[in-house]
Specification:
Pfam families: RsfS. By secondary structure, this protein is of the alpha+beta class. Helices cover 36% and strands 28% of the residues.
Length: 116
């Protein structure tokens, strides 16, 4: 599966779960860790966990095996390592604290169109 397709698959799973403020950052050439970051906000710990689990389920359904995940137990944030795509799902306050968008400033950034 192409990286762009994997990004779209993750975004679709997040949108299905009513994620807020979905942002994609192209970090190719900025880091060797990954090519794309998808960042989304959730309204509660349960929402964050549900969204992360939904992304895992959806990518597995397409034959993509996640390399790892972190933070699913706590619910403040979750990180899903899909290889060339890393998905960050956080509660709003946690997202503001870490401010990943500003950290990767200069990388190409785009926001998914919200269906709300």
């Amino acid at each position: 599966m192409q990286n762009e397709q994997l990004v779209q698959l993750a975004i679709a799973a997040l949108e299905d779960m009513k994620a807020q403020d979905i942002t994609t950052i192209d970090v190719r050439g900025k880091t060797s860790v990954t090519d794309f970051m998808v960042i989304a906000s959730g309204t509660s710990g349960r929402h964050v966990k549900s969204m992360a689990e939904s992304v895992i389920e959806k990518v597995k359904g397409e034959g993509v095996r996640p390399l790892g995940s972190e933070g699913l137990d706590g619910g403040e944030w979750a990180l899903l390592d899909l290889g060339d795509v890393v998905v960050h799902v956080m509660q709003t306050a946690t997202r503001q604290f870490y401010d990943l968008e500003r950290l990767w400033q200069g990388a190409e950034q785009s926001r998914a169109q919200s269906s709300e």
